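Postdoc handover notes: sequence design on the structure in folder B. Input tokens:
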């Protein structure tokens, strides 16, 4: 299972960090470092879209254009955890943020490509 946390209510311009810890059968059958990890977000009435993704080793990352230069995805394979550092938050970043994992998953950027999902954590940015 994936357990995301760290959401909350912040003012525009502030920062948050979202950790997502992996545990359970899937991550004992295959090491955490065998999974591509990603963060998605879903605003009310909108689709769930990728925010950032990180390769198994952490050496390659992807960001959607709207968060480039503001958000950073990272992972600690020893701690089975992926992080999303969010800086300079804007009201339009308000959404439920989900972490996701896919075994191997090289280059996966669509929600349908990910098999494992966290429960979501709400981020609300006030203006």
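Designed sequence:
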């Amino acid at each position: 299972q994936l357990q995301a946390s760290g959401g909350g209510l912040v003012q525009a311009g502030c920062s948050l960090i979202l950790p997502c810890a992996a545990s359970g059968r899937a991550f004992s059958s295959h090491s955490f470092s065998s999974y591509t990890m990603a963060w998605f977000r879903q605003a009310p009435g909108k689709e769930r879209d990728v925010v950032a993704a990180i390769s198994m080793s952490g050496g390659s990352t992807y960001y959607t254009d709207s968060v480039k230069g503001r958000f950073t995805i990272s992972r600690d394979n020893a701690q089975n955890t992926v992080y999303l550092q969010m800086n300079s938050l804007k009201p339009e970043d308000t959404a439920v943020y989900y972490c996701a994992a896919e075994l191997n998953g090289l280059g996966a950027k669509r929600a349908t490509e990910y098999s494992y999902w966290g429960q979501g954590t709400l981020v609300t940015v006030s203006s």
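Context for whoever picks this up: DSSP finds one helix and eleven strands in the chain. Don't rerun without checking with the PI first.
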